[in-house]
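[audit] Reproducing an earlier prediction to check determinism. Same input, same settings, fresh worker. If the tokens differ from the archived copy the diff job will pick it up downstream; this log only records the rerun itself.
[audit] input (277 residues):
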Amino acid sequence: MRDFSMVTLVKGRRKQLANLLDSIKQSTIFPFDIQIICMDNLAGIEIPEGLKVNIKLIKDDHSLPLASARNMGISTAETDNIIFIDVDCIVSPSLFESMLMNLTEENIIVAYPLYLPIVPENGTYSELIHNAIPHPERKHIPSNEPIPHLKFWSLIFAIKKATFGKIGGFDENFTGYGAEDTDFAMSFNSEGIKQIFVRDYILHQYHDKFDPPLNYFESIIKNAKQYKIKWKVLPMQRWLRRFEELGLIKIDEDDDITIIQKPTEIQIKNSVSPNPY
């Protein structure tokens, strides 16, 4: 099996990171190196005993935009095969092997998420999977065949460093939350790169969800406008239409967005979703 690097980002979420790293100890293959891009400081980061991989902690004193942080992690990876994984994930023992098996310079390999209702005490996949549920919109996506690019989500994906360079990485004009994944999907699709799901899983540890994500209102609007300039269409239309229904924005016939008012603290609080996905 080929060498590979793992990249993850962390801001806060020290327990989730510990569980992710703990789950790797049960993996059938280990990363050659793990790049942890720390977006706050190094306090509280602990590396589990027995994880025999080469780990680097990369610290920046400023709050890194997501696109910049992802690009940094992949650029510093020490192998040509990269698995990017969200810090909220716990990996199945076979995940890395499944994802690397068919990875080429012409594709991006993605796995399926299952969702936990808690942040568990440990990262033991075999014990936790019984409490996990699938995402209703993703569980029926077929595996082992090309999937439409707009189904891409950066929660978990494998890519070759050369492919990432050909795509141009994540566009650092997108800062904060929203549209950076869709933009990346549009970019890799324009280069003829295929997205393929493999029938393997990550467990996603619980954190509060907002639907619509009013907690990210300003960055979503900013990134939606940036995306429209680039691709001539609005992204995140379900969220934007909900913002419009709430009287926060107006979208005209040319898909130009005008902010009417920002969400109130009460509106943000009331947008918390009971679902773990």
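[audit] rerun output stored. Observation attached for the diff report: The two ends are 33 Å apart (CA to CA).
[audit] end
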